[in-house]
Amino acid sequence: MEFRQLQTFKAVADHRSFHKAANAIHYAQSTVSAQIMALEADLGVQLFERLGRSIVLTEVGASLYQYADKMLELAEAARADLTAKTHLTGSLTIRVPESFCAYRLPPVIAKFHARMPQVKLRFITCAQEGLGRDLRKGVTDLAFLLAETIQSKDLQAEILGTEKLVMIASPDHPLARRNRIRTEMLADQTLLLSRADCSYRRLLEQMMQDKGCQANIIIEFNSLAAIIANVIAGLGVTVIPQVAVEADVKSKRLVVLPWTESGLEVAQLMIWHHEKWLTPVLKHFMDTAREVLASG
């Protein structure tokens, strides 16, 4: 597997056409076809499916694309680092909880983008499950997580701050009339929760388990906005980062319940693989996150 073959493979995948890829990378179409055939023969797999005049990646091809993309970016980062290139390029893939991305990261992203406008940023929402695997593979460059800690010998975590969690409901919800909400009382309530691999959901479920109870009615959402909207509608209650509902509480569309665990906080963790080479672009994003979040 040669570097130029990966460049050609990525061009074909991006353009979904041998002809367009050939024009983009200034090769003859026969050269492009020959390189793809050689790459498929070397790996012993089919990378593309031909569907009429168009081509699509096979499942194996899609997997290779992730690696090829990172390898080409790494080569560009190395070139930039070694030649002291003024305007750095490349891309970063970052996994982050939805609330953190919406309410904490915008000033980080804005400051970073102002300094490095040519760097492409991709953000993937909250998913602790599989996080270690993707960081090890290099599919994900960096992650942020709201959790007490992360247990993994090959991952490095840095605490950037803390995030307060609150239990919320609509003002008309029966629990809103209570003076004190114990965790055990949640067993009889409808809980609106994020997907199962969200870290503060796990924390709530562990707390309920410690109290000898579990939620009987759970409605799951993949969207933080959907959870908040349905809590406002009176469907149930949820535990969520306080920053995500401050405006709704101020406008009295939501109330913070007097939960006995009201002082609960989780850490804002920045996580990366300890053996990963920190490219100049990645270093700069991490330093920007430290600078902005520490001052916030």
What is the gist of this entry?
With 296 residues, the chain is an alpha/beta fold.
> What is the CA-based Rg, rounded?
24 Å
Percent range for β-strand residues:
15-25%
The termini sit apart by 47 Å
CATH first level of the largest domain: which class?
Answer: Alpha Beta
- Characterize the main sheet: 7 strands, mixed
Work out the helicity level. Answer: 40-55%
The overall pLDDT average reads 86
Structural class: alpha/beta
Give the SSE order as H and E letters: HHHEEHEHHEHEEEHEHEHEEH
E-strand count: 11
Shape, per Cα inertia axes: elongated
- CATH names the topology of the largest domain as D-Maltodextrin-Binding Protein, domain 2
Return the CATH architecture of the largest domain.
3-Layer(aba) Sandwich
CATH superfamily of the largest domain: Periplasmic binding protein-like II
Uncertain residue ranges: none
Q: What's the structural domain tally?
A: 3
Number of helices: 11
Could you walk me through the main structural features you see in this protein, from its secondary elements to its overall organization?
The protein has helices spanning about 5-15, 20-25, 30-45, 60-85, 100-105, 105-115, 130-135, 200-210, 225-230, 245-250, 280-295, and strands spanning about 50, 55, 90-95, 120-125, 140-145, 155-170, 190-195, 215-220, 240, 255, 265-275. Strands 3, 4, 5, 6, 9, 10 and 11 form a seven-stranded mixed β-sheet that branches. Strands 1-2 form a two-stranded antiparallel sheet. With about 300 residues, the chain is α/β, with parallel strands linked by helices. The longest helix is centred in the first third of the chain and has 25 residues, at about 60-85. The protein is built from eleven helices and eleven strands. It folds into three domains: about 5-85, Arc Repressor Mutant, subunit A; about 90-160 and about 265-295, D-Maltodextrin-Binding Protein, domain 2 (3-Layer(aba) Sandwich); about 165-265, D-Maltodextrin-Binding Protein, domain 2 (3-Layer(aba) Sandwich), CATH 3.40.190.290. The chain is elongated and about 75 Å long.
